[in-house]
């Protein structure tokens, strides 16, 4: 270890000072933006914070654990500094010497430059519009384009073959921090018999250390003047996180360089997803505008609102006893939304084919480009180090089927089965809890619909008279039930918070479990409205009851689309508002309170490490919840777009804010994120594929079963007139009358007959059944079976066409661009050449002494032979 002769003991209790006697204490040199030790030479790669403790027994144990970290023995150099704001706080600055960096760069397979990229890059098709497009990119004078290099995994023995200009900047700060954290996460602090405890994570959880984090390189809003500071945080804020830069493309290379590949790939995916949303947003907005413009000319709207048609159609009560008869034209306010139906298939096909299939296929290509540019092509599972939490629990041995070597595992096969069973049982329990909440909300719908139906149609309640024109029982029930459903969803999300080998395995396992829960939590109420509500109601004389007490609720005569749209709008809007409060407002308020509580006089200068300590700590699964939020949104946009064409528009607007809000949050309100490697978006990729496949079926079923589109098309294209349907050949006139069956009020049962007897002899209800007096009265008629057959044929044809199109597009669009394949081949070739030359030199070095010895032996033999000849 270098420079141990210049260090003294840390500021620890005297009886424990010998345990960490290589950590010098230094006074702060009043350089607030300094990123170096007090000598101005050694760079700070990591910061540890602990609280100076009193001489208490349990606190002595903390000091004992801290000094057992043995960081100096692992090659790290430390320097301790007392806090400017709090005398009890101590900051330990960690520096990684060159030899240690080289060692762990090889251990972590970090890829570094070997040669500048000599392949000609393809020219952009937008180069002719550069005078316009340049304004939508970060300022090149501030963020210049980085030189492209061919890279190879670092090896200490082949330093001469790597492209090293300066040792101090050869490994980026993100690489150095990653290597420092690797050491810290495996530093032992206690050994009891065969049990070894190690890892900074355990020490943080136990309160031994208050914090551990890499440093931001400067203040986000002030450019540093310190030598050796790249000011990357300031550049990111100015060209990425600042509100004034909302229209600019993201500087992904700088994001990756500063925060690591894992953060970079997230923002790359989010930006790509937002761009591809534009297609679906344009289609959805066009569909909405078309429906709005044609609502006045829609035959459906005219007939519903016409006093001579809709005003003369008496509808049957939708609940027992207390509900009254009502006129069809009372739903006139909702009928314009039905004008959207003729164009619903277009946004579905356009969105599913273009915005989903194309998005997923082109994302694979773009991701392949990023994998190459960011050196994660060969970031394989066997190269990823095991999680320290996993290693700490490894107490059993098993033979690795690949290597044949015995290795430690945390549990046996039986133990693994038990853990899997517990995990599955936990997920199933929460899913059943969600389903129970859906049943409870359904019961609420039935009870509240009965209440609203009774009160809003009671002419004696004068105070509710102004509401009757605008509020229908269906609308009142839908809005209140959607709000309650949203509250239940958010509460269950909060409650649902609680050992695979690697960190990626751990996150993938958590991803699948959490998404399954969130899928059921967010979408179950929407699936109920779309595919269950109003489907099992029978007819007024024989209604179907839930739990033997509550009569199943019916859809509006125009279908359940309005209620489904209301549910989606409330959940999507409420979720976006709640997430912004939780992710942005709360950290900002916490930082504001922290700054107010630690306010000091203007004469004190706060160092860089203490400024960062006052920021909010980064959550271990912060990025996981960002992905989850966007994937849930992706589900809303794709699964139910047929019922809510404006969903892509709302998602696009939300994402434009989401990118900048997330950028502002991690740049200004949080400590620097620990840089991590990532090859792709992980388990989210197959989840997106699964949602896209499911979206085809759900949208086809929404059009077939939830909307009134198929019955209207069957009616329109029916050339033979049904004897029980008033049909006007090849027109939609008369459809309203044909879609409502007739019921004789004398056939009400005593339990369902309304109290208010107004002398009405017949009423209408939504179904296709034979009228009273027919030999098969109240049974489904032939028209009903024709509609069912048309619905099934529609679903089968649409699904096959869409899936075939998806398959063809997936086949035609290669996952890896040709140019990237060529660059990968070139890089592998150069790596092989370097390895061959190096191995050849090593062999030559080893053979030289042997050759010299052989030559000496030959010379001796020749000399002796000459002596024999002389004799």
Describe the structure.
The protein is α+β, with helices and mostly antiparallel strands and 871 residues long. Helix content is 50%, strand content 8%. The protein has a 4-stranded antiparallel beta sheet. It has a two-stranded antiparallel sheet with strand order 4-5. Helix 9 runs antiparallel to helix 11 (345-373) and helix 9 (261-294) packs antiparallel against helix 19 (647-669). The chain is elongated and about 110 Å long. It starts with 45 loop residues before the first strand and ends with a helix.
Q: Based on DSSP secondary structure assignment, what is the total number of beta strands?
A: 18
Strand order in space, largest sheet: 2-3-1-8
Flag low-confidence runs.
1-22, 457-470, 499-505, 723-729
Structural class: alpha+beta
Could you tell me the strand content as a percent range? Answer: 5-15%
Overall mean pLDDT: 75
Shape: elongated
> How much is the radius of gyration in Å?
35 Å
Number of helical segments?
A: 24
Helix content: 40-55%
Keywords: Cell membrane, Glycoprotein, Membrane, Transmembrane, Transmembrane helix
Family: Belongs to the anoctamin family.
InterPro entries: Anoct_dimer, Anoctamin, Anoctamin_TM
Membrane topology: Multi-pass membrane protein
Describe the structure concisely:
One of its GO terms (molecular function) is protein dimerization activity. By secondary structure, the chain is α+β, with helices and mostly antiparallel strands.
């Amino acid at each position: 270890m270098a420079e141990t002769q210049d260090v003294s003991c840390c500021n620890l209790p005297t009886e424990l000072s010998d345990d960490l006697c290589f950590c010098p204490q230094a006074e702060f040199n009043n350089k607030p933006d300094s990123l170096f030790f007090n000598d101005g030479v050694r760079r700070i790669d990591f910061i540890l914070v602990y609280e100076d403790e009193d001489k208490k027994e349990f606190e002595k144990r903390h000091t004992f654990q801290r000094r057992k970290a043995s960081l100096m023995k692992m090659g790290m150099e430390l320097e301790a500094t007392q806090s400017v704001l709090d005398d009890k706080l101590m900051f330990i600055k960690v520096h990684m010497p060159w030899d240690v960096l080289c060692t762990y760069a090889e251990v972590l397979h970090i890829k570094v430059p070997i040669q500048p990229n000599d392949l000609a890059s393809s020219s952009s098709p937008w180069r002719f519009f550069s005078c316009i497009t340049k304004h939508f990119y970060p300022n090149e004078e501030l963020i210049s384009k980085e030189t492209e290099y061919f890279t190879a995994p670092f090896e200490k023995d082949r330093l001469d073959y790597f492209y090293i200009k300066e040792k101090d900047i050869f490994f980026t700060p993100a690489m150095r921090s990653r290597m420092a954290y690797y050491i810290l996460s495996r530093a032992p602090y206690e050994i009891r018999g065969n049990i070894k405890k190690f890892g900074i994570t355990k020490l943080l959880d136990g309160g031994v250390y208050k914090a551990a984090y890499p440093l931001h390189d400067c203040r986000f809003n002030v450019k540093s003047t310190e030598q050796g500071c790249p000011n990357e945080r300031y550049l990111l804020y100015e060209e990425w996180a600042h509100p004034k830069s909302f229209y600019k493309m993201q500087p992904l290379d700088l994001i990756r360089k500063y925060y690591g590949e894992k953060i970079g790939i997230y923002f790359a995916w989010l930006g790509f997803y937002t761009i591809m949303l534009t297609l679906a947003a344009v289609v959805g907005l066009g569909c909405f505008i078309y429906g709005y413009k044609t609502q006045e000319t829609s035959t459906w709207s005219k007939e519903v609102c016409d006093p001579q048609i809709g005003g003369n159609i008496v509808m049957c009560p939708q609940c027992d006893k207390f509900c009254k008869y009502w006129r069809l034209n009372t739903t006139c306010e909702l009928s314009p939304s039905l004008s959207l139906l003729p164009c619903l298939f277009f946004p579905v096909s356009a969105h599913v084919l273009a915005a989903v299939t194309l998005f997923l296929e082109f994302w694979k290509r773009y991701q392949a480009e990023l994998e190459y540019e960011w050196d994660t092509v060969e970031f394989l599972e066997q190269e990823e180090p095991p999680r320290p939490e996993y290693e700490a629990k490894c107490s059993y041995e098993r033979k690795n089927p690949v290597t044949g070597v015995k290795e430690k595992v945390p549990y046996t096969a039986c133990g693994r089965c038990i853990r899997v069973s517990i995990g599955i049982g936990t997920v199933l329990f929460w899913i059943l809890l969600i389903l129970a909440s859906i049943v409870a909300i359904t019961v609420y719908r039935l009870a509240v619909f009965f209440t609203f139906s009774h009160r809003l149609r009671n002419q004696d309640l004068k105070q509710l008279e102004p509401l009757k024109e605008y509020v229908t029982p269906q609308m009142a029930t839908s809005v209140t039930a959607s709000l309650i459903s949203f509250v239940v969803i958010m509460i269950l999300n909060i409650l649902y918070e609680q050992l695979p080998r690697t960190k990626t395995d751990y996150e993938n396992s958590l991803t699948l479990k959490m998404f399954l829960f969130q899928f059921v939590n967010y979408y179950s109420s929407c699936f109920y409205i779309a595919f269950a509500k109003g489907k099992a109601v029978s007819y007024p004389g024989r209604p179907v009851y839930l739990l033997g007490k509550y009569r199943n609720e019916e859809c509006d005569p125009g279908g359940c689309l309005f209620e489904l749209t209301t549910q989606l709008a409330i959940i999507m809007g409420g979720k976006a508002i709640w997430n912004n409060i939780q992710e942005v407002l709360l950290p900002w308020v916490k930082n504001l309170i922290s700054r107010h509580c630690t306010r000091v006089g203007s004469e004190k200068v706060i160092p860089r490490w203490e400024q960062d300590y006052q920021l909010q700590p980064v959550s271990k699964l912060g990025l996981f919840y960002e992905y989850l939020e966007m994937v849930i949104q992706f589900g809303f946009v794709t699964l139910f777009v047929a019922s809510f064409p404006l969903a892509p528009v709302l998602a696009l607007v939300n994402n434009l804010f989401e990118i900048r809000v997330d950028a502002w949050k991690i740049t200004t309100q949080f400590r620097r994120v620990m840089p991590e490697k990532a090859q792709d978006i992980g388990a989210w990729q197959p989840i997106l594929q699964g949602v896209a496949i499911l979206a085809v079926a759900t949208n086809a079923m929404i059009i077939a079963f939830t909307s009134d589109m198929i019955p209207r098309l069957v009616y329109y294209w029916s050339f033979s007139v049904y004897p029980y349907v008033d049909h006007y050949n090849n027109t939609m006139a008369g459809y309203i009358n044909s879609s409502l069956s007739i019921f004789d009020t004398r056939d009400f049962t005593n339990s369902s007959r309304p109290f208010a007897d107004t002398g009405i002899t017949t009423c209408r209800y939504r179904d296709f059944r034979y009228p009273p007096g027919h030999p098969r009265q109240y049974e489904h008629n032939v028209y009903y079976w024709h509609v069912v057959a048309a619905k099934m044929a529609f679903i089968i044809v649409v699904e096959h066409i869409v899936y075939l199109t998806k398959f063809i597009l997936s086949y035609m669009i290669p996952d890896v661009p040709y140019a990237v394949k060529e660059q990968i081949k070139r890089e592998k070739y150069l790596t092989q050449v370097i390895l061959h030359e190096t191995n050849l030199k090593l062999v030559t070095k080893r053979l030289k002494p042997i050759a010299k010895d052989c030559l000496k032996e030959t010379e001796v033999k020749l000399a002796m032979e000459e002596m024999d000849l002389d004799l």
